[in-house]
Specification:
This is DUF4387 domain-containing protein. This protein is α+β, with helices and mostly antiparallel strands. It has helices spanning 8-11, 34-41, 48-55, 97-101; strands spanning 5-7, 12-19, 24-31, 63-67, 72-78, 104-106. The protein has a single domain (5-81, 92-104), classed as Alpha-Beta Plaits (2-Layer Sandwich). A 4-stranded antiparallel beta sheet has the order 2-3-5-4. Strands 1-6 form a two-stranded antiparallel sheet.
């Protein structure tokens, strides 16, 4: 970690995750302003390959939705383990957002 980068979660108003049915997870980055949104929406930092690496899913199954009018980036991907199954350690997918919130991006100019 260097001083010229910052975690997405530090730029966001909220980062959350939840079930999108028993077989999918959805996450949202609610960014504070247009400058923060521009970093979160930048395909150089948040893209299908990054999400695939973070969550151990195939990049071609990751869905990204950039919503500039709301300063929101929404991400959906298939759950590696279906909700409520024997090996499910997060029944509501409420903690899946943490790796995404820790993604480092360039710090905005002060």
């Amino acid at each position: 970690m260097t001083n010229d980068t910052i975690a997405l979660g530090d730029l966001a108003q909220e980062v959350r995750s939840k079930n999108a049915g028993p077989f999918w997870v959805t996450m949202e980055l609610f960014m504070r302003d247009e400058a923060s949104y521009a970093l979160a929406a930048d395909a150089a930092y948040v893209n299908e390959d990054v999400v695939a690496e973070l969550y151990g899913v195939a990049a071609d199954q990751v869905q990204l939705f950039r919503i500039p009018s709301l300063n929101v980036v929404k991400i959906s991907y298939p759950r590696p383990i279906s909700q409520g199954s024997l090996r499910d350690r997060d029944m509501h997918a409420g903690q899946h957002h943490v790796p995404l919130a820790l993604v480092r991006v360039p710090a905005p100019a002060a």
